[in-house]
Specification:
Layout lengths: L2 E4 L8 E3 L3 H13 L8 H10 L2 H10 L20 H9 L3 H9 L18 H12 L3 H12 L1 H45 L1 H8 L3 E4 L21 E4 L5 E4 L9 E6 L7 E3 L7 E5 L11 H10 L3 H10 L6 H8 L3 H13 L3 E6 L2 E6 L1 H5 L3 H8 L1
Parallel strand pairs: 1-5, 2-6, 6-8
Antiparallel strand pairs: 1-4, 3-4, 7-8, 9-10
Helix pairs in contact: 1-8, 3-8, 4-8, 6-7, 7-8, 8-9, 12-13
Length: 381
């Protein structure tokens, strides 16, 4: 199971490595929202939360669905700027229909890879988005209504939120990490120029590789006419499936790689239909807590033996979902989902809570972390 980017005919100069202030802010906000994903950042998360003014903290809670479960495509620029203001200026150029569709793609889309009409113009899609937002609580429901009724006003509000984050904490963060990220991007660009894409991907992440048209790996020294280093596709080793092309956006073909100091263990892949593919990769790793007792490990690994339960864990690691949402997402019946959830819950891997008429399930990341870093990195990648 993997994600694939078709790069047939792509020239090497169309592959861009560059840091992005907006993407790094998105990664930082994700770490603040889901500290369980990033145990190595515990000290920074605690200190930053303590220093946030109440008004800014409340506003971040209103919009956190844009970065909590995964990163919305609006936070992953295809052409990064040198400053947050430049990234936000480019974001302002996206039309309302595309902006709103991208904002809802993570938490309110039945299928990320399937084009859906904009909720601004399609009544059925608007009703579905509101229903899925309601399952995630009153904050997201209210935010969703604001975006559907006043997208221009909401976009101004969101830009101000990001600017206030820069003033409150991200300005200092960016001054600290931008040197490292810029150096990493320059290094990868030089490796690409001198040694080819296969070796560049290997240096970027162990989850990336270059393949030829026959699905075989490409030698790091191989050079050919099909694409950079002779390969025709970039393959991402992730539990999710996705497929796109470097020519997905005819006006801006290519692939963009964004280094991040906040990202591990995530390898974020933006590949919505019509968007240039973007990958955000971590430049450094960290360590996880020690594993649990052997008897617990055995029980939990047995619960995870089924491939569908592994898929469910990936989705539930990114946020709470109802049984109905999981059934739609994976194309199985609600009773089937319930049986898998019951097995995972019995092993102590799932947390369940009720919010009104909705019952939400979520992976217990602290428990999963005790199974070992390889498994946790696999489901969160």
């Amino acid at each position: 199971m993997a994600n694939v980017i078709d790069i047939t005919g792509l020239s090497p100069e169309r592959i861009v490595f560059s840091p992005s202030p907006l993407a790094e802010l998105g990664a930082a906000l994700h770490a603040l929202s889901e500290p369980g994903h990033h145990p190595g950042l515990h000290g920074w998360v605690t200190a930053t939360h303590a220093a946030l003014k109440t008004d800014l903290a409340d506003r971040l809670c209103e919009a956190d669905f844009l970065w909590r479960s995964s990163r919305s495509d609006i936070l992953l620029p295809t052409r990064p700027g040198a400053t947050l203001a430049e990234d936000l200026d480019e974001l302002d150029k996206i039309d309302d229909e595309r902006f709103v569709a991208a904002a809802f793609e993570i938490t309110c889309s039945a299928r990320y890879t399937r084009p859906t009409p904009s909720p601004l113009v399609d009544a059925d899609e608007r009703a579905r988005v509101r229903e899925m937002a309601a399952a995630r609580g009153p904050r997201q429901a209210a935010f969703t209504d604001r975006m559907l009724t006043d997208p221009d006003g909401l976009r101004v509000w969101l830009r101000r939120l990001f600017e206030d984050c820069e003033e409150a904490f991200f300005g200092d963060v960016w001054r600290r990490v931008s040197i490292q990220l810029t150096a990493d991007a320059r290094h990868k660009t030089e490796v690409l120029r001198r040694k080819g894409l296969a070796e560049t991907l290997s240096a970027t992440s162990r989850a990336l590789r270059l393949e030829d048209g026959q699905h075989g790996s490409v030698s790091v020294s191989g050079v050919g006419p099909s694409g950079p280093s002779g390969g025709t596709r970039i393959v991402l080793d992730k539990l999710a499936q996705g497929r796109t092309t470097a020519f997905a956006d005819p006006a801006d073909p290519g692939v963009t790689f964004l280094p991040t100091s906040f990202g591990w263990p995530h390898l974020v892949f933006s590949h919505a239909p019509g968007w240039r593919p973007v990958l955000q990769y971590p430049v450094a790793g960290t360590e996880l807590p020690a594993p649990a007792a052997l008897e617990l490990v055995q029980q939990r690994l047995e619960a995870l033996a089924h491939p569908m339960r592994m898929q469910l864990c990936r989705t539930l690691s990114r946020g709470p979902h109802t049984t109905g949402e999981l059934a739609v997402a994976f194309g199985i019946t609600s009773p089937e989902v319930s049986r898998h959830i019951a097995t995972l819950k019995k092993a102590g891997l799932i947390q369940t809570r009720r919010r009104g008429r909705y019952v939400l399930h979520q992976l217990d990341l602290q428990v999963v972390a005790r199974l070992g870093s390889d498994f946790l990195e696999g489901v969160l990648r």
